[in-house]
What we know:
Elements: E1 8-15, E2 18-25, H1 30-45, H2 52-64, H3 77-94, E3 98-99, E4 117-121, E5 124-134, H4 142-157, H5 165-175, H6 180-194, E6 205-213, H7 226-232, E7 240-248, H8 252-259
Parallel strand pairs: 2-7, 5-6, 6-7
Antiparallel strand pairs: 1-2, 3-4, 4-5
Amino acid sequence: MIVNNIFNTKNHDLGNGNTLNIIEIDEIDGNLKNYLDEKLISICYGPREIDISTVKLKILKFLNSKKKTLNGVSDNTIVMGAITEFMVHLFLNSLNFVQEFTFKNLEEGSMKKGFDGYYSLEENCWIVESKSGSIQTKGNSHATKINEAYSGLIKMLEGKTNNSPWENAYNHSIMVNSKKSISDKLNELDINYTRGKFENIKDFNIIPASTMIYNNEWDNRCNNFEDEVIKAIDDFNYKNIRVICINKKSLSNFRKYLES
């Protein structure tokens, strides 16, 4: 069942079954908190038997190990990327996408490497790349971040990164007990990558995601950026696409949730 009362979402039909989702998160209300409680463990650790208070503590320790700025609000790109990426995964879970990975990397104390997410939905697999930034930084917009996410996917698929993203995806699929057909396909893609046989993004279902952090600019946020984003993806190649744009008021509300 798709959860439709958790996120404040506007959906735009891009044609051919493709979608642009626009989400606004100004606070963690009761419904969102309950859904976080339900999904936090599985998003971060898959089938591992671990209690939610320990998971919260682990994430807090990771966030607290990073640089903080004035008033305890972190603008560190790692912290921002981790929190905003998590919200993308939470949203996709609400649409019944199945995680074939864990949010926490297999190496304790760090986030996942390679693709930001590898999902299945019915018979299709999807690759996620999430980018984020502060709206107060000149040049930041949903369109620029969606472009960055798309470019990141191309680099990984076309062998322009140091490590095979498929090896990490394969290892995660084993950890979360993915279907054998999914793990076998990831194994095949990793072998091809290692041998220099790379992929074309036009053959993949992709989910580029953008999150803008507003902080004190929340009341002045732009709500009419859809045309700019749609124009940005006009030249994208893909099999299918779902674009996610999140307006998030701050990073501190997620930290407060973890401390609760």
